[in-house]
C-alpha cells in the first residue's frame, strides 16, 4: 500500500527560501545551538516547544513576543517568501533572520502559510503580571495546517471565518477485485473506501481537485501519477495502517475515533450519468413549485465539524446552523416541498456517506433547532441593549459590551447581566460626581484664548474613561465650586503603572468603579463563552445530522437554481444569454447570444465572426446542463441528449497515412452512424480540406442526412455554394453571425441572427494578420476578374443580406409563466395568533388584488373578451426567495418594510431585486408579495396604478412620487395571454 497527503504544492521550484538557506547556513547552525540550550535572543522557549521543533523540523514556529508573532531562521525566511512579510533587524551578515507580524494580522499570515502547504505551530505567552527581566512562560496554543486553519479564540469573535476545504490523506491498495482508494479527512474525523476500481478510474479520482498532474511514462498511469507526489509504502492492514499514519501526522491520541462514511456499492443508487440530472423526479417537481422557497443556507461541513469539535463555534455559526435546520423543517411542513425533501435523501446519502432515516432527520432537526433557540439570542432583544449614560462616551460601552451582549438569551446569565448594569450605573455616578463639577467650572469660565480646557473622554487603548484637561487648576484656591474635585484628581496610569500623559487624570472613586465594571464584564464574557462552548459540546452528538442537513440544502440550492419549466416544443433547446465560458461576463468582454434550436441549423459567417466559439459554447453549456450543473447563460432549457458530438478542425495523421480530409470524413462517418433524433451534432466548417465544388456537394448531402435523422445541431460552413444546391430538407434553418458597417468596412458583431452571410472578410483578416498589401491588392484584382458576373447577379441579394445582418432579431417573445401557489406562507404553528406584519400582509394582498383585478377587467372589456382573469398574489416571507418560475418573467411586487411602509416596484429579475432590497441596512428580514404579468409594459402600468391607488386606501408608500412622473402607453401584448396568477 502507498499513501500521501494532498497539498497545495507537492513540489516547489528553487526559490528565495533555498537561496537564503545557503546564505545564512552558518547563522542557522548558531540558531540550532541556541535552540538546544533553550535560549533565544528575544526570550526563552519552553521544553514543549523545543520538543515540537525537533519532532517537526519542517513546521513553521510562530512565537508570541509582546504584540507580535515572530519567527527565526528558516521559519523567518518562509514568512518573507510566502506570507509577504518584511524581515526584522538590520543587514548584518552575522545576524539571525527574523520576521513576524502584529497580533491583529495573525489570521492573514496563517492563511498565507497554510494556503502554500505549510503547517504552523502557534506559541502564546502566559498572561499575568511578571517581574521585570523575568522569564516569560509560553505554551503551544494551536496547530494550523492546510486542512485545519487556526480557529482558537473564534468562539468569542464577532466575525465569520473563511474555511478552506479539507485536504485528504489518501491510501491505495490492490487486490484481486482491483484497486481500492481510501480517503481520510482529519478535519471531519471520517474515512471512506472505494474499491473495485480500474487503474484509469483510480487516476481520474486522484486528479480530481488537484492542481498538478503527474508526468506519465513507463509503469502505467498510476506510476506516473505517483511520481509527482510524496508517498510512502505501508505494510499490514491498509485501513488500520493509514489511520495510524494520520494520527501520527496530526499528533492525535490513539483514542481519537474516525467515522466510516463509506457508501456500499451494493445498495447505493446508480451514479449520475450523462443526462440523468434532468430526468430525476425532483427536477420535475421543482418545475411545478409555485410557493416561496427557503434561502438554502450553505454551511461548510468541514468548518461545522471542526468548530464543534474544538468548541469554538460562535453565535454567528449557531445562527447559521439553526437556519439550516429551520429550512429543512420548512420544506417538511410545506406540501409542495415535502416530496422534494424526501427525494433528496438518497443523493445526500451518496454525497455524505451517512444513511439517515427521514423521520429521524426531521425529529433531530426539530430538537436541535429548539435547543439552539433556547440558548442563542437570534434577535437584538430589548433587555440586551448596550448601556448608555449621557456623561460617558457611548463608544466606551459599545466596545466593552458588544463582544458578549446579544449572543445568548439573558435568562441564562441574569445575575451577570444585572451586575454589569449596576457597575455601569456606579461608573456613571462616579464620573458625574468627580468630573462633571470640573467640566461645569471650565464651561463657566469666560477666559479668552488660552483659558482652561477639559472634557470626559474614552481612552480606547486603555479601556478607561478619564478626564482630559489643561490649565484648569486655579492659581488661587478660594473654595469655589469644583475645587474639591480638582484636588481629588490624580494622574492616569496604564496597566503597567506608567503615567499615560500630562493631560489625563482620574480619581480613586472612578478607578474603583472602572475596575468593578471591567470585572463584571469579564465575568459576563466568560459566562457567555462557557455557554457557547457547552452548546458546542452538546451538539457534537448531532454532527451526523448537521452534516447531512447542510449537504442536503447544498444539493437543493443547486437544483433549484435551474429553471426547469417545460419547453413549448418537445426536444427543443433554448439558451438565453449564452456566454463563452472562457470570458469573464463581469468585465463586459463577452457577447451574449440567444440560441433557440428546434432543428438543424446551417450556420454561415465571416472569418473571426464567432462560429467556432458559438459551437464550443453550446457544447459546453449542453454538457454542463444535462449533468445538473450551472451553465454560462442567463437561463437555459436543455433536453436529454443521448449523445453530444462536436467535430472541430481535423489534422492529418502521417502514422495512419491519412490526410486531414480523410480524418474528417472518418470522424463524420462516426457522427452520422451514431446520431439519432435525440442527439446534438455540432460540426465546424464542414469539408474544408478538399476541392470546393465536390466538398460543397458532400457537405450538402451530409446536411440532408442529418436533417432526415431529425437531430438538433449546427453545421457551420464557408461553402456558400451549398445554398445553390437543390437540397431536400424539411427542418434545417439558416443562421448567420452578424456584421455591421464601421467607417465603410464590415466588422463582426459576434451575434447570432437569422439569414445567410456570404461575406467571409478573408481579405480583411489576411491584412490584419500581416499579409503584405501588394498581395492583398492582387488577390482583390483576381477575385474581381473571375467572380464579377456572380457579384453583379447577386448584388440585390447582397443588399438584402446586409440589411438582415445589421438588424438584431435576437429578441424572443417569452411565454408568460403561470404562478400557482398559496397566497401566504403556511409555516405558522397551529393556534399562533397573527402578528401585526401578517395582518398588514393580508390587507395589502387584498387591496392589490382588488385594484389590479379591476384594471385588468377594464382592459379585457376594451378587447371584448368574455373571460376575466383572477389575480392572486404570492407571499415571500423573511428568509425566503421566489420560486424558479419567476425567472425571465415580468412581475409587480410590494415590499413590506419593518416600519409598516410599502414600496411598489416592477422587475424582470425578481430574485435579484429582492436580494438588492434586503442588502440594505435594516431590510434583511423584509417580506414581499408579487404577481406575474405578461410583459414589461403592462407591469409598468400596474406599478404606476398601485403607487397612485394604495395611499388612497390608507397605506404609506416610500415611493409615492413615482406615480407622478410616469406615463406609459397601452400595452402591446395580447391580453388573451393574461392568465390567472395564483
UniProtKB/TrEMBL annotation:
One Pfam annotation reads MutS_I
One GO MF term on file is: mismatched DNA binding
Q: Which InterPro entries match?
A: DNA_mismatch_repair_MutS-lik_N, DNA_mismatch_repair_MutS_C, DNA_mismatch_repair_MutS_N, GIY-YIG_endonuc, GIY-YIG_endonuc_sf, MtDNA_mismatch_repair_MutS, P-loop_NTPase
Tagged with keyword GTP-binding: no
**From its record, what is one biological process in GO terms?**
mismatch repair
User: Keyword set for this entry?
Assistant: ATP-binding, DNA damage, DNA-binding, Nucleotide-binding
**PANTHER family found in the cross-reference section:** MUTL PROTEIN ISOFORM 1 (PTHR48448:SF1)
**What is the name listed in the Swiss-Prot or TrEMBL entry for this protein?**
DNA mismatch repair proteins mutS family domain-containing protein
What is the native source organism of this protein? Rhododendron griersonianum
Amino acid at each position: 500500500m502507498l499513501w500521501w497527503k494532498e497539498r497545495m504544492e507537492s513540489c516547489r521550484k528553487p526559490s528565495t527560501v533555498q537561496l537564503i538557506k545557503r546564505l545564512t547556513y552558518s547563522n542557522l547552525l548558531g540558531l540550532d545551538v541556541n535552540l538546544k540550550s533553550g535560549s533565544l535572543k528575544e526570550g526563552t522557549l519552553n521544553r514543549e516547544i523545543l520538543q515540537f521543533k525537533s519532532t517537526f523540523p519542517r513546521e513553521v514556529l510562530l512565537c508570541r513576543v509582546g504584540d507580535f508573532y515572530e519567527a527565526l531562521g528558516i521559519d523567518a525566511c518562509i514568512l518573507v517568501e510566502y506570507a509577504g512579510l518584511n524581515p526584522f533587524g538590520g543587514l548584518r551578515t552575522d545576524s539571525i533572520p527574523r520576521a513576524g507580524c502584529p497580533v491583529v494580522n495573525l489570521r492573514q499570515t496563517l492563511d498565507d502559510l497554510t494556503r502554500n502547504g505549510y503547517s504552523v505551530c502557534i506559541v502564546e505567552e502566559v498572561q499575568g503580571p511578571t517581574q521585570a527581566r523575568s522569564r516569560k512562560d509560553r505554551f503551544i496554543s494551536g496547530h494550523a495546517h492546510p486542512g485545519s486553519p487556526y480557529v482558537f479564540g473564534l468562539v468569542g469573535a464577532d466575525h465569520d471565518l473563511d474555511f478552506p476545504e479539507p485536504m485528504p490523506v489518501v491510501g491505495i491498495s490492490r487486490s484481486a477485485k482491483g484497486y481500492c482508494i481510501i480517503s481520510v479527512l482529519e478535519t471531519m474525523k471520517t474515512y471512506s473506501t472505494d474499491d473495485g476500481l480500474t487503474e484509469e478510474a483510480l487516476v481520474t479520482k486522484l486528479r480530481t481537485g488537484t492542481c498538478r498532474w503527474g508526468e506519465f511514462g513507463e509503469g502505467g498511469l498510476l506510476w506516473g501519477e505517483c511520481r509527482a507526489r510524496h508517498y510512502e509504502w505501508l505494510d499490514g492492514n491498509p485501513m488500520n495502517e493509514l489511520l495510524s499514519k494520520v494520527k501520527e501526522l496530526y499528533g492525535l491520541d490513539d483514542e481519537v475515533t474516525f467515522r466510516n462514511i463509506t457508501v456500499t456499492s451494493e445498495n447505493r443508487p446508480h451514479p449520475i450519468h450523462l443526462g440523468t440530472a434532468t430526468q430525476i423526479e425532483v427536477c420535475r417537481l421543482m418545475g411545478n413549485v409555485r410557493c416561496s422557497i427557503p434561502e438554502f443556507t450553505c454551511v461548510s461541513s468541514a468548518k461545522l465539524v471542526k468548530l464543534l469539535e474544538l468548541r469554538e463555534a460562535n453565535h454567528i455559526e449557531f445562527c447559521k446552523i439553526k437556519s439550516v435546520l429551520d429550512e429543512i423543517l420548512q420544506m417538511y411542513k410545506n406540501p409542495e416541498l415535502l416530496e422534494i425533501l424526501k427525494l433528496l435523501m438518497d443523493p445526500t446519502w451518496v454525497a455524505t456517506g451517512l444513511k439517515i432515516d427521514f423521520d429521524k432527520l426531521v425529529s433531530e432537526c426539530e430538537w436541535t433547532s429548539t435547543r439552539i433557540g433556547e440558548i442563542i439570542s437570534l434577535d437584538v432583544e430589548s433587555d440586551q441593549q448596550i448601556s448608555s449614560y449621557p456623561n460617558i462616551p457611548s463608544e466606551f460601552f459599545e466596545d466593552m459590551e458588544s463582544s458578549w451582549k446579544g449572543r445568548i438569551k439573558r435568562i441564562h446569565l441574569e445575575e451577570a447581566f444585572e451586575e454589569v448594569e449596576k457597575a455601569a450605573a456606579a461608573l456613571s455616578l462616579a464620573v458625574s460626581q468627580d468630573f462633571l463639577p470640573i467640566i461645569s467650572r471650565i464651561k463657566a469660565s469666560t477666559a479668552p484664548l488660552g483659558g482652561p480646557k477639559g472634557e470626559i473622554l474614552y481612552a480606547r487603548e486603555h479601556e478607561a474613561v478619564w478626564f482630559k484637561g489643561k490649565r484648569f487648576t486655579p492659581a488661587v484656591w478660594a473654595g469655589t465650586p469644583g475645587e474639591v474635585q480638582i484636588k481629588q484628581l490624580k494622574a492616569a496610569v496604564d496597566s503597567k503603572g506608567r503615567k499615560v500623559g500630562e493631560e489625563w487624570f482620574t480619581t480613586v472613586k472612578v478607578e474603583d468603579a472602572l475596575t468593578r465594571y471591567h470585572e463584571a464584564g469579564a465575568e459576563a464574557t466568560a459566562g457567555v463563552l462557557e455557554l457557547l462552548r457547552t452548546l458546542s459540546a452538546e451538539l457534537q452528538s448531532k454532527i451526523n445530522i448537521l452534516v447531512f442537513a447542510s449537504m442536503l440544502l447544498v444539493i437543493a440550492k443547486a437544483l433549484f437554481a435551474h429553471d426547469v419549466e417545460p419547453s413549448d416544443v418537445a426536444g427543443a433547446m433554448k439558451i438565453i444569454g449564452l456566454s463563452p465560458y472562457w470570458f469573464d461576463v463581469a468585465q463586459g468582454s463577452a457577447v451574449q447570444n440567444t440560441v433557440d434550436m428546434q432543428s438543424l441549423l446551417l450556420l454561415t459567417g465571416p472569418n473571426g465572426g464567432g462560429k467556432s466559439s458559438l459551437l464550443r459554447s453550446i457544447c459546453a453549456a449542453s454538457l454542463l446542463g444535462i449533468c445538473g450543473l450551472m451553465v454560462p447563460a442567463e437561463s437555459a432549457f436543455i433536453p436529454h441528449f443521448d449523445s453530444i458530438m462536436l467535430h472541430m478542425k481535423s489534422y492529418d495523421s502521417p502514422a495512419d497515412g491519412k490526410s486531414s480530409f480523410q480524418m474528417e470524413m472518418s470522424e463524420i462517418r462516426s457522427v452520422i452512424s451514431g446520431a439519432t433524433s435525440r442527439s446534438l451534432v455540432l460540426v465546424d466548417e464542414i469539408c474544408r480540406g478538399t476541392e470546393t465544388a465536390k466538398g460543397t456537394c458532400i457537405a450538402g448531402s451530409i446536411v440532408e442526412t442529418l436533417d432526415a435523422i431529425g437531430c438538433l445541431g449546427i453545421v457551420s460552413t464557408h461553402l456558400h455554394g451549398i445554398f445553390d444546391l437543390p437540397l431536400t430538407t424539411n427542418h434545417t434553418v439558416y443562421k448567420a453571425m452578424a456584421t455591421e458597417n464601421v467607417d465603410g468596412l464590415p466588422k463582426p458583431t459576434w451575434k447570432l441572427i437569422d439569414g445567410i452571410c456570404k461575406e467571409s472578410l478573408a481579405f480583411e483578416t489576411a491584412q490584419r494578420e500581416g499579409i503584405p498589401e501588394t498581395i492583398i491588392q492582387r488577390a482583390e484584382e483576381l477575385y474581381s476578374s473571375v467572380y464579377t458576373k456572380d457579384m453583379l447577379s447577386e448584388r440585390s441579394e447582397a443588399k438584402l443580406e446586409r440589411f438582415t445582418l445589421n438588424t438584431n432579431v435576437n429578441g424572443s417573445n417569452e411565454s408568460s409563466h403561470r404562478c400557482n401557489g398559496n397566497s401566504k406562507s403556511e409555516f405558522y404553528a397551529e393556534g399562533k395568533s397573527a402578528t401585526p406584519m401578517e395582518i398588514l400582509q393580508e390587507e395589502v394582498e387584498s387591496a392589490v388584488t382588488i385594484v389590479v383585478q379591476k384594471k385588468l377587467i377594464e382592459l379585457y372589456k376594451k378587447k371584448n373578451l368574455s373571460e376575466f382573469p383572477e389575480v392572486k398574489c404570492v407571499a415571500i416571507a423573511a428568509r425566503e426567495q421566489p420560486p424558479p418560475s419567476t425567472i425571465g418573467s415580468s412581475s409587480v411586487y410590494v415590499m413590506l418594510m419593518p416600519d409598516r411602509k410599502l414600496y411598489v416596484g416592477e422587475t424582470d429579475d425578481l430574485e435579484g431585486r429582492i436580494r438588492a432590497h434586503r442588502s440594505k441596512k435594516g431590510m434583511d428580514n423584509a417580506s414581499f408579495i408579487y404577481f406575474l404579468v405578461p410583459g414589461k409594459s403592462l407591469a409598468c402600468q400596474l406599478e404606476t396604478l398601485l403607487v397612485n391607488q394604495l395611499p388612497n386606501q390608507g397605506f404609506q408608500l416610500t415611493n409615492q412620487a413615482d406615480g407622478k412622473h410616469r406615463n406609459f402607453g397601452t400595452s402591446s401584448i395580447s391580453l388573451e395571454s393574461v392568465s390567472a396568477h395564483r
